[in-house]
Amino acid sequence: MSPSMQSAASRITIFAGHYGSGKTNIALNFARSLRRGGDDVAVADLDIVNPYFRTKDSESRLAAEGIRLVVSDYANSNVDFPALPKEAYALFSDRSVRVVVDLGGDDRGALALGRYVDDIRAGNDFEMLGVVNMNRPLTSSVEDAVGVLREIEAASKLPFTGIVNNTNLGAETRAKDVLESVAPVEAVASAMGLEVVMTCVASRLAGELEGKIANLFALEIQKLCYQLD
Fold first, then answer.
1. pLDDT greater than 90 at residue 125
2. Residue 123: Cβ within 10 Å count
């Protein structure tokens, strides 16, 4: 992420999108970029519907980097209980820290944000970014992607302020795949009256795409909890 994007970031940045859109990975990388810029940063994991790809997998590394993680006590356990972290209330009202939110997939996961909306709106210093992966089955068309994002807006009671292009095919992604995604994701943004604020790519592709796509954001890919050593 460029220095200008770092400095322009709101105090609260919420990443939301369809299941498998890659929002957790982006949230972690975004938090690290803010921390490298000298900010006091916390990650709030409000994903109560996906136990397989969690910020808690990176808890020790985040702590070592000086990033606070607020996550349910039941994360990465076999307890199927949608408990939200009590610390999140204080986090959203603390004006001294930049908060990066990983919101659960689709409208069901977005409901978790509801209890914090008043505090978020009161500060009037937030952005909610819709993460789009056009290679996911239920967001493979502009119409379907817009439909999912509108459902998330309605459930979360907050409007999206920008779109993040995270179109990929996992380890099989080529630079060509990312380039071909630019037009359809811009169409999604246009349909919602928004702009594409960043395009995310695996770090291995960043050099090949530099200068070809605006606001490129290179990602270090997080492993799933069952892939960790």
1. yes
2. 15
